[in-house]
Amino acid sequence: MRSDDEPVFMRDRSRTNHWVYNPRSPVGRVLIAVTLVGIAVVLLLMANHAGPFAYPDPAPTHRSPSPDLSRRLPAAEPPTAPGGHSARTL
């Protein structure tokens, strides 16, 4: 094949000392396709927050049991019935 003689990289015409993939080379075409597929996979992983872009697992919280405050509270008065009478006398 004639295209097998093409170099994989070629100098960019618009910049000096800048190399790009040569689409006329079969290896250059494969490298272009692999690069595009790789970029698409990375963008999908970023959009779905998967792989290395996943949210970190939340750190476990070590909660101590809440203290029993019922011993410190004053005794509650019994509820009053309508008319101001105690609920016990009704």
Brief characterization of the structure:
By secondary structure, the chain is of the alpha+beta class. The protein is 24% helix and 7% strand.
Q: What this model shows, in words?
A:
This protein is of the alpha+beta class and 90 residues long. The protein has a domain at 2-53. 24% of the residues lie in helices and 7% in strands. It has one helix at residues 26-47; strands spanning 9-11, 19-21. A two-stranded antiparallel sheet has the order 1-2. A hairpin with a 7-residue loop joins strand 1 (9-11) and strand 2.
Helix share bin: 10-25%
Sheet with most strands: strand arrangement = 1-2
Order of helices and strands: EEH
Strand tally is 2
Shape: rod-shaped
Largest sheet: 2 strands, antiparallel
Beta content: 5-15%
Rg on CA atoms, Å:
37 Å
Structural class: alpha+beta
Unreliable segments of 5+ consecutive residues: none
Tally of DSSP helical segments: 1
Report the span from N to C terminus: 108 Å
